[in-house]
Model the fold of this input.
Amino acid sequence: MFSRHFSTRTRKAQIGRAVSEALEQRLALSTTLTLSGTQTLSPAGAFNVSDDTGVDSSTSGFEGEASSAIDQSNPLRVAGFSQHFTTGTNPGNQLNFFFSGDGGDSWDVTLIDGGAAGEDDGLGVIYLRGNPDVTFDANGRIYVSYLGIKVVGSTVTTYVMLGWSDDDGESFSFAELDSGLGLPGAPIALDKPTIACGPVPNSTDQAVYVAYTDDFNTSSKRVVVKGSRNGGQSFQSATVSDTGNGDTLAHVAVSSSGAVIVSWHKHVGGGTTGTGTIYFDRDADGLFGTTSNFGTDVAVQSFSTNQSIRLYRAPGQPERGITTNPVLAIGNPTMANNGRLYISYLDWENISTDDSRVRLAYSDNNGATGSWTSITVDTASSTEFLPSVDIDQATGSVNVFYYTNNGFSADNDDARMRLSTRMDVASGTESWSRTYLTTGFSNEQVDANDGDYADASFQDVHQGTVHGNLLVRHYQHT
Done:
C-alpha cells in the first residue's frame, strides 16, 4: 500500500563551514519486509515516500541514489536520503531527507538546497548535490554525508559535506570536510563519500566517519577517511590506501569495538572492463587511538582480465552502466561467527550475455590476508547491479540487495530490486531465500532517461525488518 501520510517541512539550518548526469523522473519507494523465524520471506507493501508530479513544491521532481538507515536503539525511527532533481537551471542542486517515526507508515521530508527553499548548508545554489548517505549513531543522532559540486566558468570545485540533526531531520547543522579543484580530464576532485558511526575505543563517545576518494590533494588517487568524536566540531584525518592502490567507491564501517574499516575498488584498464582488486584496510582503535593505524592494504578479491567492471553499459543500466561496487558490513560479535566481515560486489559470469553475478566475500579473521572466502549470492543468468549488503545486528541474518532484470526478456531494461537473505551460521554455505521488494518494476529507458539508477543504493535491516529505498522509473505493478 502507499503511505497514508506525507508531509513536507523546510527550516533554515545552522551553518557550519563546511560529471554527473541529470536523471529523468523517478519515484523513490520505501518498502518494508518482515523476516521472522527461519527467515522465510513474505513481502509487504511499498510506501510512497516521494512525489513525482511536478516542480511546484519541495517534494516535486524525482529522486536518485537512495540510501536508508534504521535507528538501532529505536527501529521505528527510519531515515532515507536521496538526490532530488528538478528542471531548469542547476536541476541537481537539491537533496531530500526522509524521516519516519512509525516504522515507515508515514514520512516527513526536509529539503537541503543551500537555503533557496530548505536547509542551508553554506554552499548556496550549486550545480549538483549527490552521493547521499545516512546513518544513526547509538544515541539516535542522525548523520548525513554527500558531495557538492560547484561550477563557475571552467572551474569545478568539489566538496565533501557532513550534516547532523537532533530533531528527526527537521533542521541540520553542517560541516565542510574537504574541498578540491578539478583538474583537466578529471573535473571531480573528490568523490563518493560514505558514512558510518560507532564507539570510540575505551570511551563513551560516539564517532562518525566519512570515507571518500581524493584525486586532488595527491599525485595519485587515494582513499581518505575523516572522523569526529565530538559531534562534528573537530575532525581527525587519515589516508587509508597505500600509494597507487586508491581508486574509487570507498565504503566505511565501524565495529562494535570501535575499529574503523574501509573497503574500495581499484580498477585497472581504461575501459569499462579490465583487471582490478577489491582492497580492505582497518585501524583497530579508530582515528583517535595511539596504538594502531591503517596498515598494508589487503586484497579481498583480485579480478582477471575483463572481470573488473566500471560503468559497463548493460540491460537495466544502459546509460550510466554497472560497476563492481563493493559494499562493506560487519556482523554482531556476540552472535555466530563473532563479528564476521562481509563485502558484496559484482563481477562477470558471462560478459557476452550480460550475465553479471552478485558475490559475497567474508572473513573470520578481521580481514587478514588470505582469510577471505567468496560465494555467489544469486545464480540467475541475468544482469544484476548496485549490490549492497547489510547484517541484522539483532538476528544475525545476512541481507544482500540488488537490482536485477531477472524474469524479463534478454536485453530488456525492465528491472526490480531483489533481496537475498540467509541466517549466518558457521559453514558459510547455506542456501539463500529470495524475494522482490515490490510487485512493481521499472524501465529506465522510458522517456530517454540518461541517468539510470546512478552509482549507489544502500539499505538497512534490523530486528527482522527490512527497510529498502528503491528507485523506480515509471513504477508499474505486475
Summary: The first strand starts at residue 5 and ends at 9. Confidence is low (pLDDT under 50) at residues 1-6, 10-59, 473-478. The two ends are 14 Å apart (CA to CA). Residues 96 and 345 are 27 Å apart (CA to CA).
